[in-house]
């Protein structure tokens, strides 16, 4: 079997760096472990300075300390307790704004200024162009279709028969299990427990409502209490068990999340007049639909979970600006975009089944992130469903603008102008 050209090319690059024996020597474990940092879970100015003293002594430049551990960060360090360990400072990410974005939703019904934190040039401009287009079309209609965050523990028994006995006990003890779980939270509700058997292994799909929180920790603590009750009361005991068995789709794109949803399931739609499409987006409906057909074929042929252009761009920037768990973009950005001709012009629909976000808890109370929610007018209790609808409307704006940019031949030139304009 011949060696693939890409393998030969990379081996050539490695050999240009060093001889194989020298590379092998670099990969050999070294004796004597480095002295570890003492773990300092509670941020404070003193703790930050203590860590920096150790790092600067080891050669980390003082300029990094000045930039990361500025005066305001040191004075507010205690604010970050519960969000980070071994804190050494804060990172400044530029924040742009999109809007006003008109949202005609079940929970979000207003014109919103949407903060986006990103280092990617052209991103804010693209979403702003989409917001302008939907604003000229009357706004985005948005509906929340459901909610529920999964945590899925697993129990391994000696046999299929024991697994079946356990499931039978779970079904008959559902009320007690729900009570045990809900005793850990004043906001969460355990909506369902769905057992899934694979031989001697039982997964319990525990679905929760999490109020205005994204709810990742909430469902973890509740499910841990549920498992403790099961281990104490079940007539058949597992050989092993795990609080999360990688079945829920937590921070991963999955077909389970796509079909059943994990978080908030939201759909958004706009019907755009032809003249708005052409004058605001710079492409014809025929060009956009032609590109959309080919892009969907590309998604199908490469096995993508969902079919959309770039939900992750807008969600990551929104999540950074509003204190969400950015890793949840891995699942939140799964979804579908559909474009078709309408009597008016162009009908655009997006559906996101896995929006994990909140307006309380997590990083939403940190100074900059709380300010981001203030910009939206969605800080605190009672606003999480509205934030989900704004997020879906934002994603629709991004789908419109990027699709039109590629279809109309603007994609490369826009990035050259915005990303390199200051250097050329």
Question: Could you characterize what this model shows?
Answer:
The longest helix has 24 residues, at 384-407. This protein has 424 residues and is of the alpha+beta class. 39% of the residues are buried. It contains 17 helices and 10 strands. Strands 1, 2, 3, 4, 5, 6, 7, 8, 9 and 10 form a 10-stranded mixed β-sheet that branches. The chain folds into 3 domains: 39-92, no CATH class; 96-147 and 254-419, Alpha-Beta Complex (3-hydroxy-3-methylglutaryl-coenzyme A Reductase, Chain A, domain 2), CATH 3.90.770; 153-242, 2-Layer Sandwich (Alpha-Beta Plaits), CATH 3.30.70.420. The model has no long low-confidence stretch (mean pLDDT 93). A hairpin with a 2-residue loop joins strand 5 (189-198) and strand 6.
What is the highest CATH level, the class of the largest domain?
A: Alpha Beta
Give the CA-based shape. globular
Total helical segments? 17
Structural class: alpha+beta
CATH superfamily of the largest domain: 3-hydroxy-3-methylglutaryl-coenzyme A Reductase, Chain A, domain 2
The percent range for helix content is: 40-55%
Number of E-state strands = 10
What is the CATH architecture term of the largest domain? Alpha-Beta Complex
Biggest sheet details:
10 strands, mixed
Order of helices and strands: HHHHHEEHEEHHEEHEHEHHHHEEHHH
* Measured distance between first and last alpha carbons: 48 Å
Contiguous uncertain segments of 5+ residues: none
- In CATH, the topology of the largest domain is named 3-hydroxy-3-methylglutaryl-coenzyme A Reductase, Chain A, domain 2
């Amino acid at each position: 079997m011949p060696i693939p050209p890409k393998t030969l090319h990379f081996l050539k690059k490695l050999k240009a760096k060093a001889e194989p024996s020298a590379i092998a020597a670099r990969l050999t474990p070294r004796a004597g472990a480095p002295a570890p940092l003492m773990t300092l879970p509670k941020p404070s100015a003193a703790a930050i300075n203590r860590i920096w003293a150790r790092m600067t002594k080891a050669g980390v430049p003082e300029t990094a300390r000045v930039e990361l551990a500025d005066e305001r960060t040191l004075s507010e360090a205690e604010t970050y307790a519960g969000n980070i360990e071994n804190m050494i400072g804060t990172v400044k990410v530029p924040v742009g704004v999109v809007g006003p974005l008109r949202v005609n939703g079940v929970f979000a019904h207003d014109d919103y200024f949407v903060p986006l934190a990103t280092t990617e040039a052209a991103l804010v401009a693209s979403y702003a162009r989409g917001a302008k287009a939907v604003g000229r079309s009357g706004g985005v209609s948005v509906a929340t279709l459901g909610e529920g965050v999964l945590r899925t523990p697993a129990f391994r028994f000696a046999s299929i028969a024991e697994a079946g006995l356990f499931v039978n006990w779970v079904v008959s003890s559902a009320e007690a299990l729900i009570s045990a779980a809900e005793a850990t939270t004043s906001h969460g509700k355990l909506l369902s427990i769905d057992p899934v058997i694979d031989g001697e292994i039982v997964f319990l799909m525990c679905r929760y409502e999490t109020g205005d929180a994204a709810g990742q920790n909430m469902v973890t603590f509740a499910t841990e209490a549920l498992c403790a009750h099961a281990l104490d009361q079940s007539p058949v005991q597992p050989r092993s068990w795990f609080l999360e068995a990688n079945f829920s789709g937590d921070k991963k794109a999955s077909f389970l999340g796509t079909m059943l949803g994990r978080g908030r399931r939201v759909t958004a739609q706009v019907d755009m007049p032809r003249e708005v499409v052409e004058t605001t987006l710079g492409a014809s409906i025929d060009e956009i639909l032609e590109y959309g057909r080919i892009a969907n074929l590309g998604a199908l042929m490469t096995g993508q979970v969902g079919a959309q252009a770039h939900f992750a761009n807008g969600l990551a920037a929104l999540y950074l600006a509003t204190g969400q768990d950015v890793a949840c973009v891995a699942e939140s950005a799964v979804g579908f975009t559909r474009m078709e001709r309408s009597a008016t012009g162009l009908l655009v629909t997006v559906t996101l089944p896995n929006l994990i976000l909140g307006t309380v808890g997590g990083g939403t109370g940190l100074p900059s992130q709380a300010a981001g929610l203030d910009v939206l007018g969605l800080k605190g209790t009672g606003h999480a469903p509205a934030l989900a609808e704004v997020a879906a409307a934002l994603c629709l704006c991004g789908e419109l603008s990027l699709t039109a940019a590629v279809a109309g031949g603007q994609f490369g030139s826009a990035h050259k102008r915005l990303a390199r304009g200051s250097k050329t």
